Amino acid sequence: MDISTLIKQLQNPNSYPHTVQDSIKVLQTHASAIFLTGNYAYKIKKPVDFGFLDYSTLEKRQHFLNQELVMNQAIAPDIYLEVLPITIKNDQVKIGEEGKIIDYVLKMNQFPQDCLFINLFQAGKLEKKHLENLGKVVAEFHKNTQTNDYIRRFGNIEMIKKSIDENYERTEKYIGIVQTEKQYQETKEFTNHYFELKQNYFKQRQQADKIRECHGDLHLKNVCLWNGKIELFDRIEFNEEFRYVDVMFDIAFTIMDLDARNRTDFSNIFLNTYLEYTGDWQGLQVLPLYLSRQAYVRAKVNSMLLDDSNISEKEHQKAQEDAKNYYHLAWKYTQQHQGKIIMMSGLSGSGKTTMAKYLAQDINAILIRSDAVRKHRGNIPLDETGDNELYSAAMNQETYKTLIQLGEMMAKEGFNVILDAKFDRHQWRETVIEIAKKYNISLTILYCYAPLKILSDRLSKRQGDISDATPNLLKQQQNNAQDFNEKEMSYVKIIDTTNNWKEQIKDLF
User: Fold this and answer.
1) Sorted alphabetically, which SUPFAM superfamilies does this protein's record hold (predicted)?
2) Distance (Å) of CA 122 to CA 118, 139, 142, 328
């Protein structure tokens, strides 16, 4: 039975072993078709072979449906149920019944389409808290994903570069149509230089076990909020090169998808939450490459639609416009910037972190909290309270040393970075000042201030934060803090956080 006939047959309610809704809705892509029946959704693979994806035989379709089931049950067990045969008997197509097997189908629990992150976004219902929670979910997902010697080899520069070079080769014919020669060459040169000059970054990623069995297609259409729980689904099963990747490759899809929709504040929240919960700030060294790659792939896909004579003029125009925008975004990610460092300072409860989070979203900065660095170094989950050893003098030294090293690395890579800690000692403040001078990096110190009574009240009311600070520490912190000297004061902006602090920092950056 050809695919068109099969799709038509599966729109017949009599094909299903249960009652279905009045009209079965069909969602199609180039490689699959999904039938929404009410309580359940059924997915078939189309008999196609695109090289990177091969569903051309019945055996391959059964194999990849089983692969999809196993891989996605691990992350979305509430959605993925079972693979069933599609049979025909007495000219009647049935699912899961006896008869001649003509194909296979993946059965899933059906969730409302308005639960998808993309539809929540388009309806204006996607909130900042959703992106924060997504960052935690993806961090936990990556923590539990598999890696081994076979998977790690997919992090070799030769394999990564080959895939990216193929994108450039496939899109060269669209120069002058949806992107300029200059844009094409500059984007391509960026990636070539990245592989040439930063080879050690990729080796470090392999050594740090950051090449894992990831999702492979982690954009807003493959995330849903269902029954109060974020679910990742539709993990890539058909191509190892697409899922045996750097974890930064994975999150770059989500970041790029949000940036393309002009919500860098959302992508910033997602990225900073992910980094905080994984401690993988070193991954930022390869993130620009993967951001550009993901935007370029989306541009390529839209470009290829321009060759499809079956789409309408309206669809053709949209594909052309989308391709132009994605090519521009891919190019934009390659543009180098001068990084800056913002050093937060002040006692616990002074509003440093609240201000830092606001600033990070406003100027698209990487936020690193000393609380997170400390707990990662102590191998303590962020949500657990640390013991005395975690706050020893030796751990304080290690925490600030790591925090400053990370800040230096990111600023030199062109990121805006916010270092969120008390920074109450000359030695740490002056270390950052010397780094800023050495590399000509812009530095601002934001000293947050509020009366002790207010600080104490804030700490008493604090909930759900990774900081372990309590009101009884305040007097000791005050006594131990060293006042800014004349050299330091030239960088300092004092912020009274009992007043409108947003107005006080409005024109600083």
Assistant:
1) P-loop containing nucleoside triphosphate hydrolases, Protein kinase-like (PK-like)
2) 6, 25, 27, 22
Locate the domains of the chain by residue range: 3-110, 117-332, 340-504
103: part of which helix (H) or strand (E)?
strand 100-109
Q: Measured between alpha carbons, how far is 314 from 507 in angstroms, rounded to an integer?
A: 43
Q: Is 474 helix (H, G, I), strand (E, B) or coil?
A: helix
The class of domain 340-504 in CATH terms is: alpha beta
Q: Please give the C-alpha separations between residue 506 and each of 267, 343, 365, 378, in angstroms, as whole numbers.
A: 22, 16, 15, 36
> Is-contact 404 326, C-beta < 8 A?
no
Rounded to whole angstroms, what are the CA distances from 137 to 100, 133, 270?
42, 6, 10
Tens digit of each residue's pLDDT (9 = 90 or more) over 224-279:
999 999 999 999 999 899 999 999 999 999 999 999 999 999 999 999 999 999 99
The verdict on pTM exceeding 0.70 is: yes
Question: How far is 257 from 331, CA to CA, in rounded Å?
Answer: 15
DSSP of 400-417:
HHHHHHHHHHHHHTT-EE
Domain 117-332: give its CATH code.
Answer: 3.90.1200
pLDDT band at 306 (very low <50, low <70, confident <90, very high): confident
Task: Measure the CA angle with vertex 325, ends 358 and 196; round to 5°.
Answer: 85
Contacts for 287 with CB less than 8 Å, ≥ 6 apart: 248, 252, 255
What is the pLDDT at residue 312? 83
The phi, psi pair for 65, rounded to 5°, reads -65, -40
The SS3 assignment for 341 reads strand
- 99, 63, 111, 58: which is closest to 83 by C-alpha? 63
Contact 37, 20 (CB under 8 A): yes
Give residue for tokens 């990070």: 360
Q: For domain 3-110, give the CATH number.
A: 3.30.200
Confidence at 31, pLDDT banded by 50, 70, 90? confident
Task: Please check whether the two domains, 117-332 and 340-504, share a CATH topology.
Answer: no
Helices (H), 172-312: 181-197, 199-207, 240-243, 247-260, 264-278, 287-305
